[in-house]
Design a protein that fits this description.
This is Recombination endonuclease VII. It comes from Plantactinospora mayteni. The structure is a single chain. The chain is an alpha+beta fold and 200 residues long. About 2% of the residues have low confidence.
């Protein structure tokens, strides 16, 4: 994620010394002209372009975290993660189904053909982190065994993923039970009672 050294053009985190960051003024003073823009990156901390360089190229032997190229790389990775999380949440808020692992292929000669039951054929793992397809809230998948009886109490289901048996979309309890209906209802299918807990 880091640009190359502003002086030599080589990767800065190659183990050849302490790599540090440079502001535009520092890079201009070092190079005696404007630093190349293609060797800069926007630092999320200050929202301004910075350049990086080896200690033997720049003569900058400061050992401070504020000017460390390693710390800059951590900030860039954190920003990229936050941006991808925001994009994923925006897609979930737009009503697109949550991306999940595909189910194993069914044999061709299986008969009779039965309607898919998402509450049972979901591909979820107990404890897995998933998102509500309506509001994007992060939930924990709690997969019940067929012998367990799950009595849904609104407060007890907070943070637990519920699944629509008709379309397979995941819901949090607040989106599945909007208040007027006592039965969990899918935001898209609108069939009362279609949302339940996943079962193995």
């Amino acid at each position: 994620m880091l640009p190359p050294c502003v002086v030599c053009g080589e990767p800065v985190l190659d183990g050849s010394g302490w790599a540090s960051t440079l502001t535009r003024a520092e890079a201009t003073a070092l190079l005696r002209n404007a630093p190349p823009k293609d060797r800069s990156v926007i630092d999320p901390k200050v929202s301004q372009p910075v350049w990086v360089g080896h200690e033997h190229c720049t003569g900058n032997y400061l050992r401070t975290n504020e000017q460390s190229a390693e710390e800059l790389e951590k900030r860039l990775v954190r920003r990229a993660g936050l941006q991808s999380e925001a994009t994923r949440q925006a897609k979930a808020a737009a009503g697109r189904p949550v991306r999940r692992r595909p189910l194993p292929p069914q044999p061709r000669n299986a008969s009779p053909v039965r309607r898919r039951e998402f509450w049972r054929d979901h591909g979820l793992v107990d404890g897995e982190r998933v998102d509500c397809a309506v509001c994007g809230r992060t939930l924990r998948a709690r997969v019940f065994s067929p012998t367990e009886v799950a009595v849904g109490v609104h407060g007890k289901l907070k943070g637990i993923a519920l699944i629509c048996g008709d379309c397979g979309r995941l819901h949090c309890v607040d989106c599945a039970v909007p208040g007027a209906s006592p039965r969990p209802t899918c935001h898209w299918c609108r069939r009362p009672g279609s949302v339940t807990v996943p079962v193995t």
